[in-house]
UniProtKB/TrEMBL annotation:
The chain crosses the membrane at residues 12-30, 50-69. Residues 154-196 have a biased composition (Basic and acidic residues). This is DUF2637 domain-containing protein. Residues 148-196, 244-265 are annotated as: Disordered. The lineage of its organism: Bacteria, Bacillati, Actinomycetota, Actinomycetes, Kitasatosporales. The keyword Transmembrane applies. It comes from the Bacteria. Keywords: Membrane, Transmembrane, Transmembrane helix.
Length: 331
């Protein structure tokens, strides 16, 4: 049984005891008061409940003090025992008094239940409390022993911990010393590696700059070559355009010459045809007048060649003159 269970048992005993005491006190007051009233002068009958209350108060004192002494492991001596039995006997006598005087044995038995229960409960409660107190002391003794053992074990563990901590510190100091030496070695190696890296980086940068300069020179050469090639291609293109322009102009000139020659032949043919027997169609007449105008033939001769009137031929001449005058203005 642990301490919690013991405390729970004490609470159950205390609650049960006080319930029995309270019930017995109430029952005793209700039972004894008529007895006291019957044996008290009429003027003092109001004092009838005082005696059962006094006796019950003594019972409460006994139960309460016995519980405290039992919890502390003490003993009050003979007087508490005498008071306990005297209050129990008085309570029993007062409760069965009316029935005993009337010769009612059943009433005596019935009214003796509460006092006897109170007396036995007080004695049993005291025994229970002493037993519980002994159990609590045993538990506390065991716990103190366990605590002492735990403290001794804790002290031993603390000593072992301190010894282990000391050994750990010595081990860590040795490791730290080795670590410092190792870090110093690594630092030297890292410095050498960094120096080698810087040299390699400088060489790489120098090589990169040299390669960049060479690439820039190659790009410049390529650019100059491309520029020269573009200029050459532009000159060739210009020469080609000039040649094509000359050829086109020559072709146009030859075509104009051929056209002029054709027109000359046509005019000569028209002028050589002589006056027609009948009036020419208007389209053919217009072509004949135009050829005559171009050849500088007079209007009258142009009229004879076309078969139309001089006025009509003169009007066509005027149209050609107006057209020739407008052409230079537009140009």
């Amino acid at each position: 049984m642990n301490r919690v269970q013991i405390r729970s048992s004490e609470r159950a005993l205390s609650v049960g005891t006080w319930l029995i005491v309270g019930g017995a006190m109430l029952y005793s007051v209700l039972t004894v008061t008529p007895l006291m009233a019957a044996h008290t002068p009429a003027a003092w009958r109001w004092t009838a409940p005082i005696l059962p209350l006094v006796v019950d108060a003594a019972v409460v004192i006994v139960v309460r003090l016995d519980s405290v002494l039992a919890r502390l492991g003490g003993h009050g001596g003979a007087w508490p025992v005498a008071l306990r039995w005297m209050t129990g006997t008085m309570t029993l006598a007062l409760n069965v008094g009316v029935s005993a005087l009337a010769g009612d044995l059943v009433g005596v038995a019935v009214h003796s239940v509460a006092p006897l229960l109170l007396i036995v409960t007080a004695e049993a409660g005291l025994a229970y409390r002493r037993a519980l107190t002994a159990a609590v002391l045993a538990v506390e003794t065991r716990k103190r022993a366990e605590q002492d053992a735990q403290e001794e074990a804790a002290a031993e563990r603390e000593e072992n911990r301190l010894r282990a901590a000391r050994e750990q510190r010595e081990h860590e100091a040795a490791i730290a010393r080795e670590q410092r030496e190792h870090e110093a070695h690594l630092t030297r190696e890292e410095a050498a590696r960094q120096d080698r890296i810087r040299r390699e980086e400088a060489e790489r940068l120098e090589a990169a700059e040299r390669a960049e300069r060479e690439a820039a020179e190659r790009r410049e050469q390529i650019r100059e070559q491309q520029q020269a090639e573009r200029e050459r291609l532009e000159r060739q293109a210009l020469q080609q355009r000039e040649l094509e322009a000359r050829e086109r102009a020559e072709r146009e000139r030859r075509e104009q010459a051929r056209e002029q020659e054709r027109m000359e032949r046509e005019r000569a043919a028209l002028l050589a045809a002589g006056p027609p027997q009948v009036k020419l169609p208007e389209e053919q007449a217009r072509a004949t007048v135009a050829a005559a105008f171009a050849a500088g033939v007079p209007v009258r001769v142009a009229a004879e060649l076309s078969g139309w009137s001089v006025g009509w031929a003169s009007a066509r001449y005027q149209e050609h003159r107006d057209g020739n005058a407008a052409a230079p203005a537009l140009g």
